[in-house]
Specification:
CATH architecture: Alpha-Beta Complex
Helix content: 10-25%
Order of helices and strands: HHEEEHHEHEEEEE
Largest sheet: 5 strands, antiparallel
Distance between the termini: 26 Å
CATH topology: paralog of FGE (formylglycine-generating enzyme)
Number of domains: 1
Strand order of the largest sheet: 1-2-3-9-4
Number of strands: 9
Shape: globular
Radius of gyration: 16 Å
């Protein structure tokens, strides 16, 4: 990865500090659209981000419209309010494009900078609740939840961060808009997952995955700019 990109990511906590951060009211652009939360614009261009990871219920609305694949595997864990899994980067991006077409608003996948700003929610600690993973804050391996190390959890099963966003740490890795390599064959993912140890769920933790890959540890949320 280029030095300039690494430097920019390292400076995100300083560029996007938001003292006095607080939750905003959630909204929807259509009855079948995901809940969105408008974030404070201090130090960054204002945008809204999904209150939750995109769920199977959210995805099914797109599938009914014929714009998304309807046979996405839930790994036997159930659908409904669990985060949609086993979707590629292109499929996640396609869902956001469908939202744009339906609503007339500009939806997309978050950049890494947008994602980390949302995850930190005005904090500078490793997790929004502090520097230690603690117990019962997120769905990750050995994090003290009912699902950690075993499966995804229904979205919103753990406390929200100060921006009113759920599961920014753990549950599923989240696709971002940013490339991990020069040809964009790999895309950056953020947030960690139920299968991974808490180190990977820190706000600063990053990884890259093949854009064509799908996994039961991988989902996404959307932004509205």
């Amino acid at each position: 990865m280029h030095f300039a990109v690494r430097l920019f990511v390292a400076l995100i906590p300083l560029l996007f500090s938001a003292a006095g951060a607080r939750a905003s009211e959630a909204f929807r652009d259509c009855p079948d659209c995901p809940e969105m939360v408008a974030l404070p614009g201090e130090g960054a261009r204002a945008f809204a981000i999904g209150r939750f990871e995109i769920t199977f219920d959210d995805w099914q609305a797109c599938a009914r419209a014929g714009a998304c694949r309807g046979d996405v595997d839930d790994h036997g864990w159930g659908r409904g309010r669990r985060p949609v899994i086993n979707v590629t980067w292109a499929e996640a991006d396609g869902y956001a494009r469908w939202l744009s077409a339906v609503t007339g608003a500009a939806y997309g996948l978050p950049s890494e900078a947008e994602w980390e700003y949302a995850a930190r929610a005005g904090t500078r600690t490793a997790y929004w609740w502090g520097d230690a993973p603690g117990r019962g804050h997120a769905n990750c391996r050995e994090c003290g939840g009912a699902w950690d190390g075993r499966s995804t959890a229904p979205v919103g099963s753990f406390p929200a961060n100060p921006f009113g966003l759920y599961d920014m740490n753990g549950n599923v890795w989240e696709w971002t808009a940013d490339c991990w390599d020069g040809d964009c064959s790999r895309r950056a993912v953020r947030g960690g997952a139920w299968y991974y140890f808490p180190e990977m769920s820190k706000a600063s933790a990053r990884s890259g995955m093949e854009a064509r890959q799908w996994s039961y540890t991988l989902g996404f949320r959307v932004v509205r700019r």
